[in-house]
Amino acid sequence: MLGILTLNSQLSTLNSQLVPLPSVVIHGHFYQPPREDPFLDEVETEPSAAPFHDWNQRIERECYRAVVAARVSSGDGRIERLVNTLQSISFDVGPTLLEWMEREARATYEAILAADRESADRLGGHGNAIAQPYHHTILPLATRRDKETEVRWGIADFRRRFGREPEGMWLPETAVDVETLEVLAGEGIRFTILAPHQVARVPNGGRPGLCRLPGGAAIAVFVYRGDASHAVAFGGALHDGVAWGNALAGDAAAPDVPVAAGGSSSARRGRKTPSSVARPETLLSIATDGESYGHHHKFGEMALARALDQLRARDIRIESFGAFLARNPPVDDVELVAPTSWSCAHGVGRWKEDCGCRVDATRNPSQAWRAPLREGLESLAATLHQLYEREAARLIPDPWRARDAYGAVVATDAVTLERFTRSVATGAVTDDDLVRARELLEMERDALRMFTSCGWFFDDIGGIEPRQDLRYAARAIALAGPAAAAAESRLLETLATAASNDRASGTGQDIYLRSARPVFPAPMRHAAAAVAARHSAPAERRRFTSATVEIDDDWVRVTEKRTGRRHDYRWRVLHHTVTDVAVELMTAEGAVHVLQLSDFPERPRLAIRAVLRKAMLPRCLSADELDQLMSGAATLGGLLRVALIRAIERLELEEDEATLRLALDLVDVFDQFEARIPFDAQSVFWRIWIAASPARQAALDVLHRRLGFADRRPPSEGASG
């Protein structure tokens, strides 16, 4: 009997060597177009995102914070545990979106970085995160120089945030051509991800293929499974996480491994494959829009977490592309079909012509506006690049190398930007020279981001995305100064031929003049807003994202943070009513301008809003925090939300009964208002709960249940990774 058991064990071991565990990689592409007004570096209110301030905020609430704290339900429908799903799935996050998150959603941002660190530790250094070109630009339509800058900025930003070199890079819309892959390979990127129709022949077993490039370099290409990816976006896979996980497991365990005409690569080379060698590993990879998990599909993040559990239960290896590639270097050659993208049936026509691709399949709007928008911005970019090279030659010895290096600091603070410019602008003699060098680098930044792909993706030039690209153009022109006046005139002439499908929107020229080019420059609007706030509510201090403002009884000074340019104005208030204020500003040169309330970057708060103070709020919030919230636009519900989060945070430091009672009282208030417990409050409590001792968990058990968690004690945090 012992001999039989030993033999069975040996056979099992041999079988596991010959038939390795199948692997699954679920990739999430997380991206939103940049939304900041480039003149103000602030996101304006977007009514279509209501009840949220803007679309970034709405999607962060619905998706990004959900995928890093996905709820796994217990049998009775309560919460069993929270899971950071990014610890298990491959992902990329747009650098401009990370810029916004770092400032506006810090907890979510930190959880994203932590997920990559955990996965890198677990997978031998091959973390789940991969890079993305800095701006969501369709690279096949960009010049070689702009391709290189976008890729180098993306790598530099990834390195700064994630603390390691990226192995792979997601291409915007997976848009690709040979030159794009040459740039990636030249910058040390080992792999990218493409759709099945973007290669002439899909490699066997889901394994990476090798794309050999004309210059002698090569890059690995993973081709994702089209039908399984489509099921997530459009096929209802996220309606049932268990069924989805089982479907993925079934596909992974019985992969379709076709041998195309001509046989396997080894057969083509005339080598016989011995039957005794181990069967090659197989991979099922899918590529998904990250916003599917909670935004496009409500509770999609919960389905993802449940599917991951199912895959583990079925002995499926869940890993990253980098980890699979380390064990399985490319064998099959792949031939690129180029230029192509995943989202345009006509190659890359969606971003340059009326190709017929559209979002609303029920209508047939004209996209004839796409061609003049592309033509106008490309012509403008060529002029701006010439101007940059000509002006920078006096200040920056190597202008294009400096532009590439700017990506390492472009999302940092004003001090770092100034320090960087001093290091590259060695020809700058005066402070004004240094300011001009900073303006030129910023001009190039806007010349790059005005090609953000979203400006062409949707159905009309009157949308918020084309307007945003035109704002970048206007900002670049403003930084260029009088030398760009003729280029702006040519742009306007071209945009006049880009007609919106909505008569009210007019043409691209109308949109540019109405919504992109401000009537008054940003420093002047900042100055007027500061004057109005001082006059109407002296105790209120208005802080601007893009500038610092100093004000006294006669003068106001505005200093732009990104360029260091200073603007001084003499001011006076001409008239002031409850609903309006008019501010007169005189420049140092004597020019006089009058700004009304609508010209300000933000309508100044003219009075401190009275808010009903609950007796418990001062116990949760500091006096400064309460005053700040009450001087803003927070509703009573918003105040209570902040109070509950603060009360729970105090439980980490204060283990007394009074602090726990305060948190429970606040939960009672939410119950009285029939309001849902805030997502953030649950997330903060979970962090405290999993770190608590058994005795402390017992003390917190009542609050644990009142916040919606299941009775059963959660497993250790590592068990959910």
Descriptive report:
- This protein has 721 residues and is of the alpha/beta class.
- It has four domains: 20-258 and 280-327, Alpha-Beta Barrel (7-stranded beta/alpha barrel); 351-516, no CATH class; 522-599, no CATH class; 617-720, no CATH class.
- The protein is 44% helix and 11% strand.
- It has a five-stranded antiparallel β-sheet, with helices on one face. Strands 1, 6, 10 and 11 form a four-stranded parallel β-sheet that branches.
- Strand 14 (566-576) and strand 15 (581-587) form a beta hairpin.
- Helix 15 packs antiparallel against helix 17 (464-480).
- The protein is globular and about 80 Å long.
Task: Briefly characterize the structure.
This protein is α/β, with parallel strands linked by helices.
Which labels suit this protein?
single chain; 721 residues; alpha/beta; 7-stranded beta/alpha barrel; 4 domains; five-stranded antiparallel sheet; four-stranded parallel sheet; 44% helix; globular
